Amino acid sequence: MLEPAASAEVLLAELLGVRRSELASYPGPLSEEQAALYEGWISRRIEREPVQRILGYAYFRNLRLKLDEHALIPRPDTESVVDAALEAIDRRGGSCRVLDVGTGSGAIAISIAQERPSCDVHATDYSEGALRIARRNAARAGAKVRFHRADLTSGLDTLEGSVELLVSNPPYVRSGDIPDLAPEVRDWDPRFALDGGPDGLDFYRRIFAEAASLLAERADVVLEVGDGQAEEVLEIGWYAGYIPLGTYPDLVGTPRAALLRWGSG
């Protein structure tokens, strides 16, 4: 989470349309309209509303993604998950069929489609509200993503046996831990995008079980994980018939993605 001073600088820079590093040299005072808007933003931030919710958008890799109450705020940790997915795509020659499960704002799917445009990218979400904002974000980015309303992977018969890369940032917070989350997360992100069940691993079990019929032989699987969950997720995948390949770190070196392969070899 941003500290108060950093939040104030980010909001002011966005208000003025400049970089934070340029604030000190910005000429002239704020207009009355700007000052009133900024004061309102600061009041909302004091109440622990996240900067991204105040602005209505978040930056993610090369994207500026619109947000509303239906989608999780995309966070820098997930950029490492995209990196892991792109490496898997590149090992396949730079083109494959991709499925992003639980796309939310579309951050993962749109990034892949934008950065590897030869891929056939599909994305699912159960929330029609999330899909609506994801479609808007894809259109704004000029990224070709086929969105499907689905409970994880249900009803995707046309993709059966053809998905070569499955990627997901599923809910992984333990139900009992949600009350202890920072207010910026607990009170502003949709609970259904956070709650991973009693041990935080419910959605991994479901993904491994329900996605298998969609996967091509030797398909890659890249799943974001919470702190300390990577080995458990790899073990669950192994028992479900997937081959554990290891983990992928985030920017501070914490294992942030579990990497697996479907099928033999």
Top keywords for this entry?
two-stranded antiparallel ribbon, globular, alpha/beta, 7-stranded mixed β-sheet, single chain, 9 helices, 2 domains, 21% strand, 265 residues, Rossmann fold
Q: Average the pLDDT over all residues and give the rounded result.
A: 94
CATH architecture of the largest domain: 3-Layer(aba) Sandwich
- The helix content is 25-40%
What is the CATH T-level topology of the largest domain?
Answer: Rossmann fold
Give the strand order of the largest sheet, numbering strands 1, 2, ... along the chain: 5-4-3-6-7-9-8
Question: Oligomerization state of this entry?
Answer: single chain
Write down how many β-strands occur, each being a DSSP E stretch of 2 or more residues: 9
Overall domain count:
2
Query: Low-confidence parts lasting 5 or more residues at pLDDT below 50?
Result: none
Mind telling me the C-alpha Rg? Answer: 19 Å
| Shape estimate | globular
Helix/strand structural class? alpha/beta
Q: How would you name the CATH homologous superfamily of the largest domain?
A: Vaccinia Virus protein VP39
Main CATH class of the largest domain: Alpha Beta
